[in-house]
Every structure is written in structure tokens, then in C-alpha cells.
Design brief:
Endonuclease Iii, domain 2, Nucleoside Triphosphate Pyrophosphohydrolase, 7 strands, about 15% strand
Length: about 400
């Protein structure tokens, strides 16, 4: 199937001869291009289902439940994050927010604090917004149909399909990054999978491959295969249930699929932040945090101030060497310089003498876990607190 423009989405013509799958649905016939791949791998789904039963994952903390709330939290956490990293976050999150009502009643700050370190913080903001919407619009009953799920913040087509498949066995196709990789290799699909036309072809293919039954095992099997066998680097083709019909393997071109994102240099940005320090009454170090605006980079998270807060005066002499850190975002690279200064006068908020409210807060080392902090900011703070702990006891410090 040829596509116009620079990207090409093509299902390999060099596939084994078509065989008819027993029980194959007639609705899969008649779509040129896509149908070629399906006929070439008629038992794609049955092999995957059988493999999942024997070799797939069955004991993950979010499995064994049809409760859409639990499935939803796991699916959101698993976006762009591997299972091993998600498990401890998921367990802490579910212990604190066991149901949608508890999550909706919590503050966004607390949700972000439980998310701190997982990255892609828009996911946490969407979780909180979705919980509030479910309480307001669905009377606290979490939807389990994909069409309703897609109306909630942060739930796209693939995530909605996964939740609906696991919660009620809905026959809906998933197409996350792992699945795109499996399909691109198995059907030798040319073109970057994120390109709209390639993606549209893959959705059509993913839907045409759906089995008529066992949708949960099939969906889990696709996820498991992409995560444990058809991995980005060093796929284990000898252990793959799809190896016999895999076009990339047959042509010894596994490394060629999926096509990488077209190269373009990410722009670089620079920012100077203030790592402002003061001493509590007991001599312990405190650093000043500022909450980011709700939208934009690190929206709603706590960071270091970009500007000196009103009325606050700092020592002209640095409290330590400037700290430098580079952090890569999807669309740009951020170079951070953190200037360290002692605060010599902090008049706000009036009457308190310390900043305990609003969007500025003093934070001690023991309080770091209470704040939703982007990983680079946490690293800068850890560095500052560690340096202070290593300070010789005899040396006076502020
Ligand atoms: S044979 Fe290899 S490349 Fe093909 S789907 Fe299986 S693991 Fe992926």
C-alpha cells in the first residue's frame, strides 16, 4: 500500500502465501493492503493467546481485577514507563487512593507528590481531573466502555481500549508503542509509526487482527510480547510465537523496523533558577520552592524560583558553586543553572516570617517527599542538602 508524501506505510508484499483462518470473520475481508497482512498471518491472534497463557505475565499487581479504576491507574502509569518502575508507584498510589472518590477528594499537590519521580506529570494532573469528572458526571462510577472512557482527560484511544478489554472484555484494539513495534516488524511496515498515515494504517491493521474471543488474553499477550520478547533492542525472535510468519525476521531486517522518528535537532533552552537557602531555628537547612503554573513545563509541580520573590533579599556572595544540569524533554533540551544564595531577609508572608502558604514554601530535606518535584529539581535539592550534611561541623554556616 503506497502512501503519498515522504512517509510510506507499506505492508510487506514478501509474505507467506495466504491461508484461511478457521473461524475467521468475513468482516476482515475486502480491505486492500491490510487484508494482505492478515491473510498472511491467519493464526496471529490464536498463537499470541496460546503463548500468553503459557509465557505471559499473570501476577502483576493490577491483574486479576475487572475494576476499571484499578486498571485505569495502571494503564496511565504504564504509558512511557516500564512495569518494574511502575509497580512500587502503583502500590503506594493504590494504598493512598484506593478508589476514585478518594482520589477526587485529594489535593492535586498530594497526587503530584505520589507521582514524583515517574515523569510525564501531565498524566498525574489528568488522573486527578478524571477522578473529579467521574464523580461529577458519572456519579462516582468509573466507565468501562471505550467510547465513554475516551471522553475523560488523558485517556486516548489505545488506553481506552485496554481498560475496556480488561474490565469487560470489549473487543477493541490497542496500539501503544510496544504494539506498534510488534506490528511494524511482523508485517514489515515502512515509515515512522507516529506519522499520521502510517498510524492510520496500523489502527486498521490492529482492528483487523482482533480475535472474536479471548480479547483479554490477546490484549495482554500483545503487551507482554512487546515488553518481554519483541523488545526495542535485542528481540528474542527464537522465543517468539509469531516468528514463523514475521516478515522482518524472514528478511533478516528486524533492526530496520519500526522506522525511527525523522531526525530533527531538538532546540536548546537555558534557564537560571535560584536555589535559595535559609536556616530554621534548629539550624537545619531549608530551600525555597515555588509552585509552577498549572499549564506548561512541569505544570503544577514544585520547582526552584526563576525570579527572586518580592521583598526577599539574598546575600551577594554565593552560598556554594552554581549547579549545572541538562534535562532532555521530548521537544527540547533544557540547560539549568542553579545559583545558590543565602536569604538574609524574608518578610513574607506578613506576620509569619516564614513562607508556609501559597505558591512559595520552605522545604527541609525530610519534607522533600511531600512535594511533587520534577526529577531534575529533586536532583538539585538532593545535591544541596547532601553538601550541607557533609559540611564540617566546626564551620559556621547559614
Ligand atoms: S520474530 Fe522477532 S521481530 Fe518478529 S515479531 Fe517476533 S520478536 Fe518481533
Amino acid at each position: 500500500m503506497g502512501l503519498a508524501g515522504g512517509q510510506q506505510a507499506r505492508l510487506s508484499p514478501a509474505l507467506p502465501p495466504p491461508r484461511r483462518q478457521a473461524g475467521a470473520s468475513s468482516r476482515r475481508q475486502g480491505k486492500a493492503g491490510i487484508i494482505t497482512g492478515v491473510q498472511a498471518a491467519p493464526d496471529f491472534s490464536s498463537r499470541l493467546i496460546a503463548w500468553q497463557g503459557r509465557h505471559g505475565r499473570h501476577d502483576l499487581p493490577w491483574q486479576g481485577s475487572r475494576e476499571p479504576y484499578r486498571i485505569w491507574v495502571s494503564e496511565i502509569m504504564l504509558q512511557q514507563t516500564q512495569v518494574a518502575a511502575v509497580i512500587p508507584y502503583y502500590q503506594r498510589f493504590m494504598a493512598r487512593f484506593p478508589d476514585v472518590a478518594t482520589l477526587a477528594a485529594a489535593t492535586l499537590d498530594e497526587v503530584l507528590a505520589h507521582w514524583s519521580g515517574l515523569g510525564y506529570y501531565a498524566r498525574a494532573r489528568h488522573l486527578h481531573a478524571t477522578a473529579c469528572q467521574v464523580m461529577a458526571v458519572h456519579a462516582g462510577r468509573f466507565p468501562d466502555r471505550s467510547e465513554l472512557l475516551q471522553e475523560l482527560p488523558g485517556i486516548g484511544r489505545s488506553t481506552a481500549a485496554a481498560i475496556a478489554a480488561f474490565a469487560r472484555g470489549e473487543r477493541a484494539a490497542i496500539l501503544d508503542g510496544n504494539v506498534r513495534r510488534v506490528l511494524a516488524r511482523h508485517f514489515a511496515i515502512e515509515g515512522f509509526p507516529g506519522a499520521p498515515k502510517v498510524q492510520a494504517a496500523m489502527w486498521q491493521l490492529a482492528e483487523s487482527l482482533l480475535p472474536d474471543t479471548d480479547i483479554e488474553a490477546y490484549t495482554q499477550g500483545l503487551m507482554d510480547l512487546g515488553a518481554t520478547v519483541c523488545t526495542r533492542a535485542r528481540p528474542r525472535c527464537s522465543a517468539c510465537p509469531l516468528a514463523a510468519s514475521c516478515s522482518a525476521r524472514a528478511s533478516d531486517a528486524v533492526a530496520r523496523y519500526p522506522a525511527p522518528r525523522p531526525a530533527h535537532a531538538r532546540p536548546e533552552r537555558r534557564v537560571m533558577l535560584w536555589l535559595l537557602r535559609s536556616r530554621a531555628a534548629d539550624g537545619g537547612l531549608r530551600c525555597l520552592l515555588e509552585r509552577r503554573p498549572p499549564a506548561g513545563v512541569w505544570g503544577g509541580l514544585w520547582s526552584l524560583p526563576e525570579h527572586l520573590p518580592d521583598g526577599l533579599r539574598v546575600d551577594a556572595i554565593p552560598a556554594g558553586p552554581a549547579l549545572h544540569l541538562t534535562h532532555g524533554f521530548t521537544h527540547f533540551v533544557l540547560h539549568i543553572t542553579a545559583e545558590q544564595r543565602h536569604v538574609v531577609a524574608d518578610p513574607a508572608p506578613a506576620g509569619h516570617g516564614v513562607r508556609e502558604h501559597g505558591d512559595l514554601r520552605w522545604c527541609r530535606q525530610a519534607q522533600l517527599a511531600e512535594f511533587g518535584l520534577p526529577a531534575p529539581i529533586r536532583l538539585l535539592l538532593d545535591t544541596a542538602f547532601a553538601a550541607d550534611s557533609a559540611r564540617p561541623a566546626s564551620r559556621p554556616g547559614r
